[in-house]
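Lab meeting prep.
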Amino acid sequence: MSPIHHLLHDILHQYGALGLSVLLAGGIVGLPVPDETLLVLSGFWMHQGNLPLFGTILAAYAGSCIGMTISYVLGLKLGMPLLHRVGPKMRISEKHILSAEAGFRRYGKSVLIIGYYIPGLRQLSAFFAGVSKMPFRIFASYAYTGALIWVSVFLGAGYFVGRHISFHKVVDYILAHPEAMPYLIGIVGGIAFSFVLKTYLTYRSQFSLYKNSLLP
């Protein structure tokens, strides 16, 4: 088991869902926390019965929303000077800042959803929403929806994949080969997007049938 794996295990074992919430909030704000690994591990420990099911889901969602909200407020109140000053200390390079800013300007509100799956952009999307003075109601509707999908995908991956394969070997491989993480994120994100799209189309179809049934 890797040192990071040990550290996350110790924090979750000692502080439970509260520790998960604090770590996720810190990771989204910019602290060096392996967010996806943390969520997958938490999902696995939910499956093992070491973490409560609903409490862990709620804590992960709350931590994500809190982290995004803190970043939004920092961007709204303190703006770009803060980011340029403290970014390098939090391993956020000028290249990351420029890429995230360009992505936000191009895709706007959608970045608050898709940005969760892109390291660097996840930490900066809410900040740029604050800098651009996006209304909080719009920010929250996108950012909190994205948090729910992101948390569900990675907790679910840990919960269900842990039944069929050697989970510890997979985690150790990913930590030893971090270049593989973008591919994993892309695959999981694609599956999640397909599921969300299918669900949306299904409900839209059902609603249309219901609406048409009410017409004379």
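Slide two material, second protein:
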Amino acid sequence: MAVEYMGHTCGDIVTRGEDPPTRLGFTVVELLVTLILFSIAMGLGSAVFSGYQSRTAAQRAAQVFAMDLRLARTSAVRGREAVIVDFDEAGMSYCIRLESGDTIVKREFGRDDDIPLDLLNLQLTGDSLVFNARGVGDLSGSGSSLGIASFAAGETIYDVSFNVMGASKVELR
């Protein structure tokens, strides 16, 4: 049984007065245009996102390093034992260990690691920083009270300036 409402029967093609029947739905051309626009938007979005990842990777690595310097100094004072931060620029890593040999933390940076970096550069004469039991650092005879570590990912470079007390400042270069 067909139901009639305002001159239309339910289940019939929708008509408006004398106009030809209207079909509901999308044409292939409309779907194709929508798909093309969506693809372009996704391409632009992924390009922007990849730049964001490299910017944040360098910043995150610099912030982690600054926190690890505070950890090293705090561990030296609390444990009343020297804490050594050994740097390996070629391997893009550093290790914080007690003088007794126990490792506190080891960080590795690189394309296949937690924080993808292109460069880790330490501007010190030696490759280690030692915090004595009182928490005072020795920058490997650099003659300076300030060291600088640079972390780069893509075009983005962050510098961490630090002193013999473990205080640090993270800056975008």
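Talking points for slide two:
The chain has a mean pLDDT of 84.
Residues 57-172 form a domain with the minor pseudopilin epsh fold fold (CATH 3.55.40.10).
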